[in-house]
Recover the amino acids of this structure.
């Protein structure tokens, strides 16, 4: 195996084993058998010893994250200068002349200087103001893709960009319920993540590092080539910024190629960098007071199009924030047809002096996000809604931090209940394909869906739906087919989908079995009956009773029952486990994960709980002599601890 292939395998194994460990220790599930984990661990350890490369997060070297009281400051040995910029490919080609160069992304993150010595990371410092930066070594050790150990044992100094990818940025923002707390862009989030005092926070944000310049590597001959430096850095385990070797006559074509890749590029960028490949020649050019002369930045020239504002759509969110979206006559921007742009808040609506019928210019920020550049008319006649577009409640205007934002104060507004709708259509509930969270938000925004039963009346909104962005007749009829398919479901799926606090898929099955599938008894429960079910204590029982005590919930359930047909789940062949409760812990050998065994037990009428109690019938643990808390509790309560082999015999599968 070539060295590059070995390093690639190290990165792959580090990520895979990290996911496996998280699933096992944090989610109590397994994505691979123990024997497979051990085999891959041994492979990783051997490759690390062979190559000298150890990635951050490697299970062979993982340590606790450091928490600091403050970030120390440190002066750079020489000022870190900015690059001269141009928006003209012709000017860039003229500057390059007859020299070969490397064209790469100008990444939009936080510049970091790394120092390695003796093969290990010694120091990481931010660019700061160019002269003084902050020492973030503890946080750099938590970067997702950074090698902590490298085969080169001399002193190495390099520069690169810490970034948070768009895909990770969206996941992090989606998890923030308070709209005002969401991050505006990946760069802001990355800067805050890298400059944390707690390295565990940095680790949770999936910060990546991409090298873009080698400053010093003692005793290494790079044959006077920046490309050779990049190749060498890759061989040390670093991810290097994507680049192409170019010459002036073909530069415009190369820039066009990067432009076509922007929308699919997961790494935030705000332009390109052209760096001369000839190290000696580039350094001989010297520098100005502000910039080195061996490189130049290319900034995208924003393509402006003039159009007419036709509508301001006010879109309610799950946090109660009501966001303005400009709807205008469609225009072609950077090769795609655009007709919408977010305006963010009332303050921006007012600063742009927007009004219906105004002539505006629009562009794509960084060639991705549609924005309004200028209002050529400036009528300032846009009306701010006095009621929520979803529920009709009177709106509030908030002046927090000097920014005017519009809010819906109604806690029962359907826009705020998006998570409950999303749960109802999820895979473990009604499993309605085509109703993603974003689609649900669209339907809620325009009033197509206000309550759960409305999901079964989508067919009456056909004309409205097929005209929506991302929809057509085919996708509409596929959605209706999925909705009709979901009408045939099971009682546990339905109960789970109601979103009763504390009732997951497993507890829903327990409820149904405990009441022998009688939903009328389930929806009118008695507390002593509930607490008699294994896995349901007083808190959970109170939550169930509280849910069914709400008249509005009972009315909604009646409407849903009129749309649904429950299919009885047949017991699988094997020993009848009705009335038996199992707890599964530790690793398994005959099943890929605990859920697989749980499904078999439940199919035979048994129940599976997450904790050992007096109601537990058996604890399944291959390590019977383990000193785990579950083993100790089982022994104290006199509950049998059986191995996986014994469990298979018990359920008639061996």
């Amino acid at each position: 195996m070539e060295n590059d292939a070995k390093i690639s395998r190290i990165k792959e194994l580090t990520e895979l084993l990290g996911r496996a460990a998280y699933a096992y220790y944090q989610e109590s599930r397994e994505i691979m058998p123990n024997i497979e984990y051990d085999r891959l661990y041994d492979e990783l350890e051997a490759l690390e010893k062979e190559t000298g490369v150890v990635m951050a997060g490697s299970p062979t070297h993982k340590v606790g994250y450091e928490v600091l009281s403050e970030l120390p400051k440190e002066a750079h040995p020489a000022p870190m200068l900015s690059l001269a910029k141009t928006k003209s490919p012709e000017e860039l080609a003229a500057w390059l002349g007859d020299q070969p160069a490397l064209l790469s992304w100008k990444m939009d993150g936080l510049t970091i200087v790394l120092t390695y010595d003796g093969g290990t990371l010694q120091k990481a410092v931010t660019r700061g103001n160019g002269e003084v930066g902050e020492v973030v070594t503890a946080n750099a050790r938590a970067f997702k893709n950074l090698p902590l150990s490298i085969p080169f044992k001399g002193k190495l100094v390099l520069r690169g960009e810490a970034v948070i990818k768009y895909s990770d940025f969206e996941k992090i923002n989606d998890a923030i319920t308070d709209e005002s707390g969401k991050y505006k862009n990946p760069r802001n989030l990355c800067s805050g993540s890298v400059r944390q005092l707690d390295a565990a926070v940095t680790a949770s944000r999936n910060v990546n590092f991409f090298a873009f310049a080698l400053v010093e590597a003692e005793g290494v001959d790079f044959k006077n080539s920046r490309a050779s430096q990049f190749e060498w850095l890759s061989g040390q385990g670093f991810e290097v910024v994507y680049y192409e070797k170019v010459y002036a006559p073909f530069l415009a074509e190369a820039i066009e190629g990067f432009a076509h890749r922007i929308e699919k590029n997961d790494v935030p960028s705000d332009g390109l960098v052209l760096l001369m490949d000839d190290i000696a020649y580039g350094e001989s050019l010297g520098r100005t007071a502000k910039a080195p002369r061996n490189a130049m930045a290319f900034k995208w020239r924003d393509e402006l199009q003039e159009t007419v504002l036709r509508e301001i759509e006010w879109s309610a969110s799950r946090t109660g924030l009501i966001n303005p979206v400009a709807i205008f006559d469609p225009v072609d921007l950077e090769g795609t047809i655009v007709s919408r742009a977010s305006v963010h808040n009332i303050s921006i609506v007012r600063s742009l002096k927007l009004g219906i019928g105004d002539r505006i210019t629009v562009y794509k920020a960084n060639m991705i996000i549609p924005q309004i550049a200028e209002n050529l008319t400036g009528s300032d006649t846009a009306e701010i809604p006095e009621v929520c577009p979803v529920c009709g409640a009177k709106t509030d205007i908030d002046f927090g931090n000097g920014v005017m934002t519009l809010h819906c104060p109604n806690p029962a507004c359907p826009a705020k209940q998006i998570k409950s709708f999303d749960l109802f259509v999820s895979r473990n509930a009604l499993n309605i394909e085509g109703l993603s969270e974003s689609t649900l938000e669209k339907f809620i925004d325009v009033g197509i869906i206000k309550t759960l039963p409305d999901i079964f009346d989508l067919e009456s909104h056909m004309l409205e739906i097929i005209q929506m962005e991302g929809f057509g007749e085919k996708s509409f009829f596929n959605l209706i087919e999925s909705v009709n398919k979901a009408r045939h479901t099971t009682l546990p799926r339905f109960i789970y989908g109601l979103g009763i606090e504390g009732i997951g898929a497993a507890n829903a099955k327990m409820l149904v079995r405990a009441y022998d599938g009688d939903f009328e008894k389930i929806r009118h429960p008695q507390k002593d009956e509930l607490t008699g079910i294994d896995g349901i204590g007083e808190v959970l029982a109170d939550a169930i009773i509280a849910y069914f005590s709400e008249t509005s919930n009972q009315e909604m359930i009646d409407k849903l029952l009129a749309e649904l047909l429950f299919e009885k789940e047949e017991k699988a062949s094997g020993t009848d486990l009705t009335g038996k409760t199992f707890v599964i812990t530790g690793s398994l050998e005959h099943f890929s994960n605990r859920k697989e065994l749980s499904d078999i037990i439940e199919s035979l009428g048994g129940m599976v709980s997450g904790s050992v109690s007096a109601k537990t019938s058996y604890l399944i643990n291959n390590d019977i002599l383990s000193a785990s808390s579950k083993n100790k509790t089982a022994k104290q309560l006199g509950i049998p601890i059986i191995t996986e082999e014994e469990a298979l015999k018990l359920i008639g599968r061996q």
